[in-house]
Every structure is written in structure tokens, then in C-alpha cells.
Amino acid sequence: MAVYAKVINILQDLIQLHTDRIDEYHRIILENTTSDLKVVFTELVRQSKEYRTELVECLGRMDLQMQEPTAIRQGSIFLMWSEEKESLMGSSRKSILEYCDLELYALKYAYEVATLLTEDLDDIVHATIMRQLQGVTYVKDAVRTFYNAL
Q: Which residue pairs from 96-100 have beta carbons closer than 8 angstroms and sit at least 24 positions apart in sequence?
């Protein structure tokens, strides 16, 4: 059961990270008049909403397997990110993309940890985490390419 609790904690962190991304990216969209950045961040919002919904479903599966529901809490991955992100955000195109790249790096790391912990557990949860990791990796590479082109 300890492994299930760790997986649930990571799922909750990932859900919270996606919720935070949605809020941050909406703010960037509203504050930025550059159409290419709006397109990028609108897609990131869409992806985060989709992934958050899938993770909530995975969390429900894990809760059923544990036979006892878990309370939503803020885990160490999310708390570390929320403490650091304020110092990262700037207002220039380059600093916004740099922030996004660093945020995606942290998110990718959280997914990598989640893949290790879910490897021998629920197949559907593990497959979801693996697919989302691939999506986050793809987006991170695209943002890095966009950043490097500036």
C-alpha cells in the first residue's frame, strides 16, 4: 500500500501542476499581445486541461484499488515548483519562453518519477503517465526550439 500512496501523491502533484500551468498560461495569454505566443500558450492550456482530466481519472482508479479515498494535498514536487516559479517569470518573449522551458523541465521530471513508480502497478495508469510524458517531452522540445530561434 505504501507504493500506492506514493503514486497517489505523485498523481495529485501532477494534477496540481497542470492546474497551476492553466492559470499561469491564461495570465500569459491575457498579458501578451504577440499572436505566436498566444498560439503556443493556448495549446499548452488545452494540453494541461486534457492531461489533468486524465490524471483525475487515474487517481480515481488508484483510490478504488486502495479501498480508501485519499485527501487532496500539495506534495513536495508541487511545493518545490510553486516556491521557485515566482523568481523565473519575466515579461520579455525570451524570458516567458525560458520560464515555460524550465516549467516543462520540472514537469517532465515529475512524469519520469511517476513512470518509475507506476511501472509495476495499474497498466492503465502507467500507460497514461507514459503517453503524457511523451507529450510533455514533445512540447518541451518544441518550446526549446522556439526559444532558441529568438
A: 96/28, 96/32, 96/37, 97/37, 97/143, 97/146, 97/147, 97/150, 98/147, 100/40, 100/41, 100/44, 100/143, 100/147
